[in-house]
Design the sequence.
């Protein structure tokens, strides 16, 4: 389903598991971990440190936007898979274009 796919996308970009511990030691979903960074537009708080610098920040941010749209609370507000695929293809195209330079 779309929500689960969004969680997988967040696991990929953050390098975190689906369930993480917050600063208080509580177990939370990776979506709740990413949410405060997403709300303030802070990509560095989201991206796995092992990936930093080796990607287009525009495509990484788009990737995070897609992932967060997949985990919206109401299922009716989540995108269709064909829209997700299209947006992820745009992310890939941006990365491939970056590699040419």
Sequence:
């Amino acid at each position: 389903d779309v929500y689960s796919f969004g969680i997988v996308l967040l696991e990929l970009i953050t390098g975190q598991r689906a369930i993480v511990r917050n600063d208080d030691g509580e177990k939370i979903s990776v979506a709740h971990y990413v949410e405060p960074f997403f709300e303030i537009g802070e990509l560095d708080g989201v991206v796995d440190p092992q990936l930093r610098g080796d990607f287009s920040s525009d495509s990484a941010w788009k990737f995070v936007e897609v992932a967060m749209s997949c985990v919206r609370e109401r299922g009716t507000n989540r995108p269709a898979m064909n829209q997700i695929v299209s947006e992820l293809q745009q992310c890939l195209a941006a990365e491939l274009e970056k590699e040419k330079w």
Notes: The chain has one domain: 2-100. The chain has a mean pLDDT of 94. The two ends are 36 Å apart (CA to CA).
